[in-house]
Amino acid sequence: MEKSFKTFDVQSVELPCNFQKAFDFLANPSNLPKWTAAFTEADEHSAVLVTPNGQLPIGLNTLADASTGTIDWHMTMPDGSIGKAYSRLTALPERHVVYSFVLLAPPVPLEELEGTLEMQKGLLAQELLNLEKLMA
Question: What is the CATH number of domain 17-135?
Answer without folding.
Answer: 3.30.530.20
